[in-house]
Design goal:
Elements: E1 4-10, H1 17-25, E2 32-39, H2 45-55, E3 59-64, H3 69-79, E4 84-87, E5 93-94, H4 98-109, E6 113-116, E7 118-124, E8 127-133, E9 140-143, H5 144-153, E10 165-168, H6 185-196, E11 199-203, E12 208-213, H7 225-233
Parallel strand pairs: 1-2, 1-4, 2-3, 6-11, 7-12
Antiparallel strand pairs: 4-10, 5-12, 6-10, 7-8, 9-11
Length: 235
């Protein structure tokens, strides 16, 4: 059973962090390295990290001055020792069998990277509206040439949220998130990783809960998003 490193960047998410961490430590896949990167939180998030570290020896905690999510993820990557690497946002949830099912698939297919869908849970006034997102039109193994055809068939409509991917550590060994990007830093990282991979596994698994709260950055239109993409892919 290969080790998975799961990297969680954390900044001022105390109300949601315990539920996220509980969902990770209770995964049915046990060989985990859980890397929590506290990015200079000013609430009790840092204390929650330390509390969970005493409960589960698989947890490692990094505390750093606030430098943004890219730098936090990069700190986690520098420490990660697992054969596989994945990411979770600190206010999201993983259903118990997510990692076990994904690793079974990626090892069966012997691929460089696995993609899975997610449940988008939109919270407003204490109520949640859920929908399945990012379900691939194909499930199974794709070669690099097949991946090109798949992307063309999707007309570029490919989910590039980094939490939807599990990478081999070898694949992303020389990749890092760009701390200068105000948005879409995960999209750039994912695209770079996909361009390096030779084989891909697409899974319809949607056991990752992506929580969006009204008023959050993820819920609002970002006026500089298009400019951000253009600057990074039209150099």
């Amino acid at each position: 059973m290969e080790k998975i490193s799961i990297i969680v960047p954390i900044y001022n998410v105390a109300p949601y962090l315990p539920a996220c961490l509980d969902s990770i430590i209770h995964q049915t896949y046990l060989n985990l390295e859980i890397i929590l990167v506290d990015d200079g939180s000013t609430d009790s998030s840092n204390k929650i990290c330390e509390q969970y570290k005493t409960v589960d020896p698989r947890i490692q905690v990094i505390h750093q001055e606030n430098q943004g999510v890219s730098t936090a993820r990069n700190a986690g990557l520098a420490l990660a020792a697992g054969h596989y690497i994945t990411f979770a946002d600190a206010d999201d949830l993983l259903e118990p069998s997510l990692l076990a099912e994904c690793i079974k698939a990626i090892e069966t297919g012997q691929t460089d990277v696995l993609y899975h869908g997610f449940k988008k849970d939109v919270w407003k006034s204490g109520k949640v509206s859920s929908s399945l997102k990012g379900i691939p039109s194909f499930e199974g193994v794709l070669s690099k040439n097949q991946m090109k055809d798949y992307i063309l068939a999707q007309k570029g409509n490919l989910n590039v949220n980094v939490f939807s991917y599990i990478f081999t550590r070898e694949l992303i060994a020389d990749l890092r998130f760009n701390p200068d990007l105000p948005y879409a830093e995960d999209a750039v990282f994912v695209m770079q990783a996909l361009s390096k991979a030779q084989t891909y596994y697409f899974s319809a698994n949607c056991d990752y809960h992506y929580n969006v709260r009204a008023g959050s950055a993820a819920y609002r239109w970002q006026p500089k998003l298009v400019e951000c993409y253009r600057n990074n892919f039209m150099e």
